Amino acid sequence: MEPRPTVDDPDRPSGRSRDPEVLLASARAGDRGAIGRLLSLVERGGEVAREVGRLAFAGSGDAEQVVGITGAPGAGKSTLTDHLISSAKRDGDRVGVLAVDPSSPFSGGAILGDRIRMQDHALEEDVFIRSMATRGHQGGLALAAPGAIRVLVASGLSVVLVETVGVGQVEVEIAGEADTTLVVLNPGWGDAVQASKAGLLEVADIFAVNKADRPGAAETKGDLESMLDMNPSMGEWRPPVLLTTATTGDGVDALWSAVSHHRQYLASSGELVKRRERRLVDELQRVLTWRIQQDVRAIRGGDHFDQVVAEVISRRLDPYQAADRLLGGRG
Question: Would you state the pLDDT for residue 6?
Fold first, then answer.
């Protein structure tokens, strides 16, 4: 049997294991440092990340609930998430939070504002909060996020909240890793229109119009309700639109109740199993796409590629024949 991959970590205190299997066992026993090191390995990518992913996949099962929280920057998602942690804890859950931040173009690190806003919970034993960035992960967050969620679940956290920084394509994809997707907007017609343009009407399970103490909250709620009325793709579940004020906690209990109600709906309708199966298929397709892209890069780096390109340019081969030749097929 080949030895399991390990990692040389200069930040690792002496005496602590570098073995992913040992780290995972420690994480299950409540070692927060081990959880953090496992997530760092997932972010870095490479063979060790694959080993962590394999172990977490085999030992994680399914979380009680994974909630994706997305919305425009400045919508108050982090403050709202902070209150949702409290709501989940009152239900007896152990909570993991992935705050997905943009990477610094200089250091590659994550912006830590999310964790600062959740600092009331940061040191609690039954809560683990991590800011996550692309860092060096090959394939980006779309590949790293599912592995990170599995690490948290395998560590014994029953509820995982995934907060993303905005509503771009990557953020929507990451929110799609959730059982329940919560979209946070602010009062104003513009946010409702942007939600429609970003495709969030299709992916949202629950809407929260946050900062509801500001003018225009009721109008935004009405706009969203009207858009939902005209949405032909809506199934049995109609996303509720709730008013919240994260700074005071107003409406948060009702919001968490809606999240719990959606979880019950998913379980009773069979949609929960279907969603999780679709996510696994989608993840496999992303991994396959990434692996194929790596193969294409390797092909382009070889001398044979230049020779085939020359034949295409001289019109001795068409692009399909050229691709067959490069991939080892007929042509």
Answer: 39
**Distance between first and last Cα of the chain:** 41
Cβ proximity of 150 and 56 under 8 Å: yes
Q: pLDDT for 290-329, tens place per residue?
A: 888 888 988 888 888 999 999 999 999 999 999 999 988 5
Task: Give the largest CA-CA distance in the chain.
Answer: 71
Q: How many CB atoms lie within 10 A of CB 321?
A: 16
Q: Give strand pairing partners of 162.
A: 68, 98
Residue, of 124 and 165, whose pLDDT is higher: 124
| Mean pLDDT value across residues 78-84 | 91
Residue 251 burial (CB count, 10 A): 19
Count the helices and strands in the chain (H runs, E runs). 14, 7
pTM of the predicted structure, to 2 decimals: 0.82
Q: Dig out the tokens for 154 from the structure.
A: 């395998």
Beta carbons within 8 Å of 317's beta carbon, 6+ residues apart = 308, 311, 325, 331
Strand 206-209, strand 180-185: pairing: parallel
Q: Which residue has the tokens 């329940």?
A: 180
Domain 61-269 has CATH 2.40.128.120: no
C-alpha–C-alpha distance, residues 250 and 246, integer Å: 7
Reported as type and span, the H/E element at residue 130 is: strand 127-132
Q: List the chain domain ranges.
A: 61-269
Do residues 135 and 108 lie in contact, with contact meaning Cβ atoms separated by under 8 Å?
yes
DSSP string of 160-216?
Answer: EEEEESSSSHHHHHHHTTSSEEEEEE-SSHHHHHHHHHTTHHHH-SEEEE--TTSTT
Phi, psi of 185 (to 5 degrees): -125, 165
> Helix, strand, or coil here: 13?
coil
CA–CA separation, 26 vs 31, rounded Å?
A: 5
Q: Scan for tokens 């990340």, then name that residue.
A: 49
Least confident piece of the model among 6-20, 48-62, 128-142: 6-20
